[in-house]
Amino acid sequence: MTTRLPAIPGLPPLLACAGLLAAWELAARFFDISGLPPAHEALRELPVILTDPESLLNILASIKRMIVGFAFALAFAIPVGLMMGRSRFTAAFFNPLLMIIYPVPKAALMPVIMLWLGVGDASKTLVIFLGVSLPVIYHAYQGARAVEEKMLWSAAAMGMDARARLMRIVLPAALPEIMVGIRTGLVLALITMVTSEMIARQQGVGDILFNAMAMAQYDTVYATIVIIGILGFVIDAAFELLRGRMVAWAEPVHEIAVGTT
Amino acid sequence: MTLARRSGEILIGILPIAAIVALWHAIAASGIAPAAILPPPFAVFTRLAQQFGNPQFLGNAGITLFRLFAGFSIALVVGVGLGLAATGSRTVESLVKPLVRVLAPLPKVALYPAMVLILGFDDASKIALVAADAVFPILLATYQGTSAVEPKLVWSARAAGTSQRAVLFKIVLMAALPSVLTGCRIGLIISCIVVFLAEMITSTDGLGYLLVRAGRNFQTVDMFVPLISISILGLALNAAFNMLRAFLLRGFPEEH
Q1: What domain count does chain A have?
Q2: Which domain holds residue A232?
Q3: Is some CB atom of chain A closer than 8 A to the CB atom of B137?
Q4: pLDDT in tens, A192-226
C-alpha cells in the first residue's frame, strides 16, 4: 500500500463533512427551493439554538431520557443475553419472543404506551429502553455462546461456582461482542429518542424539528438536523475510543453497526 | 439436533408468549384496566382477522409494502453498487469510506423533515427515508464481504483471461454473496420498521397512519391491529428472505 499523505486520524471524516456541506450549499443555490436553504444560512442558526435556554433545555431533556433508557437497557440486556448464551433452556425460552418483537418499530409503541404511562418522560424512556435492549441481548447472546468451553471447565474444576463463572469468565470473554451490541444500541437510542419525540410532540429535539417545520423556519429545521448529526457522530466516535481501550486485547470484530428502530 | 429436542424447544419458546397473552387476558378480564386502555386479546385478534378481509385495510397494507420495496430496491442497487465499487477501486474507496463514517451513525429519521421539505409529503419522501436507512447495512456488508474475498480466486480468474470488470461481478460479488445477503436481510427489516415510522410521523395512508388515526380516536383495538400486522409482515419477509437465501446459496458450505 502506498500512502502519499501522512495519515492524520480524523482527517478523512472531516473532509467528508466539508464535502457534504459544499454539496448542500451548491444544491441549495442550484435548485433554489424554499424547502432547502443554503448551508451557511442553516449553520448561522446553530449558535441561536444552542444559546436559547428553552431549546437547550429541550435538548438536555432528550439526552437525559436517552441516558436513563440506555443505562436500564444495559443492566437488563447484558445478563439476559449472557444467560441465553450459556443455557439452552433460557435461549429456547426467549428466542421466539424476541423474534416477534424484533420487526416491530419500538417507537411505534409510543401511542399505546402513552395510553398507559402518559406523554411524559416515562413513556419515552421505556421506548428507548426497549429499542436498546434487543441488539444488546442479541450480541451478548452470540458472545456468550462462543465462549471456549475449556475455560469454563477449568474454572469449574478449580471450584468456581456458576455465578462467578458467568461474571469472571463469560462476561469478559463475551465483552468484545457485547461492545458491538452496545454500539448498535447507542445509535438506536438516538434514533428512538428522536422518533419518539416526533410521534409524541411534547418536548425534546424531535419536537423542535417539527415545530420549526410547522412555522416554516426551515433554517432551524436544518440546524437541528445538524445538531442531531453531530450528536450521533460524537457519541459513536467516543464509544469507539472507549471500546478500543476496553477490549484492545481482542481481535477487531467486523460488524455492521447500524441499528434498527 | 434431533426432532424431539427441536419440538421441545419450540414448546418452551411458546411458553412466554402464551404467558403474556394469558396475563393480558387476565388483566383485561379482571377490570383493573378499562377496555379503552387495554382491550381483551380476543377482541384484538378477532379484529385482526376481520381486517385481513377488509379491502380498505389491505389497500393501506399494500401502500406500505409498495413504499417498503421501492425504498429497499434503491438501497439494494446503491448499496451493492457502491460497496463493490469501493472494493474494486481505491479512489472510490477513499471517497466512500469517510462519507460512510460520517453518515452511518446519523439517525436518518432526523433527515425526514428535510426529505419532506424537498420531496413533499407523498410517497417520495418516505421511499427516500427507507432507502437512506437501508442502504448502510447493505453497503457495509457488501464492502466487508467483497474485500475479504480470497485473492487467489481473483488471480486464477485473471490468469484465465477474465477482464477486471467481469472479475468484480462474476467472482468477487458471487464469493461475497453470503455477506451481501446478511446485509440485505438487516436492510429489509430496517425498511419494514422505517416505512412504518415514516407513515406514523406524517402520512394519510398506510399501516403506520392507521395506528396514529386509531390513537387519535381512542380506538384502542384498532391500535393493536397495525402493530401486530407489522410484526407478521416482518416475520413473513424474513422467512421469504431466508428461503431466497437458501436457494441463492445452495452451493455454499453451511454456516453456523
Answers
A1: 1
A2: 35-246
A3: yes
A4: 888 888 887 777 788 888 888 878 788 888 888 88
Look at residue A17 and tell me if it is in a domain.
Answer: no
Does the beta-carbon distance from A221 to B113 stay under 8 Å? yes
> Does A27 fall in a domain?
no
| pTM of structure | 0.83
- Pick the residue of B12, B140, B186 with the most A CBs within 10 A to test the interface with A by mutation: B12
> Tens digit of pLDDT for each residue in B139-197?
988 988 888 888 888 888 888 888 878 888 888 888 888 888 888 988 888 888 889 88
Cα–Cα distance measured from residue B65 to residue A28, given in angstroms and rounded to the nearest whole number: 32
Using CA atoms, how far residue B141 sits from B86, B96, B109, in Å, is 12, 14, 21
Tally Cβ neighbours within 10 Å of residue B45: 15
The answer, for B220 touching chain A at a CB cutoff of 8 Å, is yes
CB contact under 8 A, B98 and A12: yes
Q: How far apart are the C-alpha atoms of B95 and A16, rounded to whole Å?
A: 8
Q: Does the beta-carbon distance from A195 to B109 stay under 8 Å?
A: yes
Distance from CA of A45 to the nearest CA of B (A): 16
ipTM of the complex: 0.78
What CATH fold (topology level) applies to the domain B52-248?
A: MetI-like fold (1.10.3720)
Burial classification of residue A6, based on how many CB atoms lie within 10 Å of its CB (0-12 exposed, 13-18 middle, 19 or more buried):
exposed
Chain A touched by B242 (CB under 8 Å): no
Query: Are B104 and A188 within 8 A, CB to CB?
Result: no
Closest residue to A261, CB basis, from B99, B194, B220:
B194
Residue A260 lies in a domain: no
d(CA A124, CA A109): 10
Question: Which residue is closest to B208 within chain A, CA to CA?
Answer: A108
Residue for cell digits 421441545?
B8
| CATH number of the domain residue A186 falls in | 1.10.3720.10
Q: A121 vs chain B: nearest CA distance in angstroms?
A: 19
